[in-house]
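Summary of Year 1 activities. Much of the first year was spent building the evaluation harness for sequence design. The harness presents a backbone, in tokenized form, and records the residue chosen at every position. We chose the following record to illustrate the format because it has been used consistently in internal testing since the harness was completed.
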């Protein structure tokens, strides 16, 4: 299904650039596990997270004391505490990446406590108690929760002033410099930049107050700075406009760093970094939102895999007569060797063997690996042209989907030779490998099949990954089914 003009063979052997798909320091820790840091490392964030959970749960106790005969309803108050904790969690009230003001939290916190009390009063024996007593207990609950949170936030704010959280600033060099300088001028914000991740290896000039900041041009430099300084916060100026920087950010997130965008342009492409609005507010005057790396667990989750297994298994059974007919016809027309096997690059740059019906016999293994399109080959039989025009030659890939090599919907996989070439020519190309490859995809239903623009395909494929949903997969499959026999070629 992929084609463009024939690309000349590069000098020497090519392989997929490893640093494109994951970031790890040589000999360093495994992504996803926090490396041991030096003396600059801060205490684990989960400690503050646990304290907030504890104080929110304990705030129910003074409220219970304000209720007559509260000792008769221990289970009710336990359920109330659990319900409020769950509501607070959904509202990101345990996101402790930055220290909020208690007044800013007050509406959200009291609203969720009110929801918890309303549910308790409606569905428990407490509804028989006087409303004045219940209202007083609600006020005590809100006051205790706010006071306890104010104490926790105050302590954390004092600790941050004493020992700011080390951070890396990612973005264009000139803009990253300005952000770093603003943070250094406002030490009360609790974040102190220790390095810039930018294009050029330069050094931010010394000032009277702070030493110069190194500019980190490679993933290895960024990971080394993370380990040496105990970095837990990464600040992105706008979105990561270069796919190399996006790959570095995903690697840093794998080490446990929190990614924050200092939003300046909401339309900047993210190459796999999804933003979500948070209550963090301002950081040294910059508006912040949290960034999430493209999550393999979410994007390749249980629902997507179940859809793949059920549909591919069902289609293999239903299409068995068609597959058998095509195989027999190919055997008669073109001789033995009906199935064509070819190495393709899949999720995270891992190779796999993709299956197709053989519609062309390359002159050599080199031609099979490096010739781009054979759709208009004059030596191809009319039946083979028919298979390619109707995409029936792709049906065997349902077995790849059933096995887990591919998905029904995703970016089309390509050969390692062309992955290396396109990765050099198009910055967004390597980011397509964040998700399992697919038989069809967003690019294909928009006509980007055959001899079409690789740059356009990159844009559609990355947009599909960045905005993935199970319903989007269903819509793409329905549109593919409607276009299945359209003679677009492959």
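For this record, the design step produced the sequence shown next.
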């Amino acid at each position: 299904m992929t084609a463009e003009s024939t690309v000349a063979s590069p000098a020497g052997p090519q392989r997929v650039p490893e640093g494109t798909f994951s970031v790890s320091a040589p000999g360093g820790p495994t992504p996803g596990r926090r490396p041991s840091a030096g003396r600059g490392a801060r205490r684990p964030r989960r400690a503050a997270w646990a304290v907030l959970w504890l104080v929110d749960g304990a705030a129910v106790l003074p409220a219970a004391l304000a209720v007559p005969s509260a000792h008769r309803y221990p289970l009710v108050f336990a359920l109330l505490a659990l319900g409020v904790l769950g509501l607070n969690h959904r509202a990101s009230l345990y996101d402790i990446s930055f220290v909020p003001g208690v007044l800013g939290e007050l509406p959200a916190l009291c609203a969720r406590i009110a929801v918890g009390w309303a549910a308790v009063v409606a569905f428990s024996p407490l509804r028989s108690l006087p409303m004045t007593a219940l209202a007083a207990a609600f006020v005590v609950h809100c006051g205790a929760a706010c006071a306890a949170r104010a104490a926790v936030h105050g302590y954390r704010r004092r600790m941050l002033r004493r020992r700011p959280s080390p951070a890396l600033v990612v973005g264009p060099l000139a803009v990253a410099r300005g952000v770093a300088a603003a943070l250094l001028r406002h030490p009360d914000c609790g974040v102190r930049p220790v390095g810039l991740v930018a294009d050029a290896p330069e050094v931010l000039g010394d000032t009277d107050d702070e030493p110069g900041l190194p500019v980190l041009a490679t993933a290895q430099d960024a990971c080394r700075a993370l380990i040496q300084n105990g970095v837990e916060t990464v600040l992105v100026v706008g979105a990561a406009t270069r796919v190399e920087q996006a790959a570095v950010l995903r690697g840093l997130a794998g080490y446990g760093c929190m990614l924050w965008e200092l939003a300046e342009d909401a339309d900047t492409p993210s190459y796999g970094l999804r933003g979500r609005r948070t209550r963090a507010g301002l950081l040294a005057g910059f508006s912040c939102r949290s960034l999430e790396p493209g999550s393999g667990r979410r994007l390749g989750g249980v629902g997507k895999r179940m859809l793949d297994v059920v549909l591919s298994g069902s289609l293999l059974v239903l299409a068995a007569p068609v597959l058998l007919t095509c195989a027999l016809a190919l055997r008669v027309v073109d001789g033995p060797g009906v199935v064509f096997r070819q190495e393709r690059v899949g999720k995270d740059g891992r190779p796999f063997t993709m299956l197709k019906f053989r519609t062309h016999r390359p002159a050599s293994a080199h031609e099979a690996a490096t010739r781009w399109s054979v759709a208009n080959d004059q030596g191809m039989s009319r039946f083979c042209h028919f298979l390619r025009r109707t995409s029936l030659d792709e049906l065997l890939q349902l077995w790849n989907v059933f096995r887990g090599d591919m998905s029904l919907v995703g970016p089309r996989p390509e050969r390692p030779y062309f992955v290396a070439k396109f990765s050099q020519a198009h910055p967004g190309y390597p980011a397509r490998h964040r998700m399992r490859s697919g038989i069809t995809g967003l690019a294909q239903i928009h006509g980007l099949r055959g001899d079409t623009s690789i740059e356009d395909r990159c844009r559609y494929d990355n947009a599909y990954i960045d905005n993935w949903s199970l319903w989007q997969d269903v819509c793409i499959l329905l549109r593919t089914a409607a276009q299945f026999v359209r003679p677009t070629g492959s």
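DSSP finds 18 helices and 14 strands in the chain. Quantitative recovery figures across the full test set are reported in Table 2.
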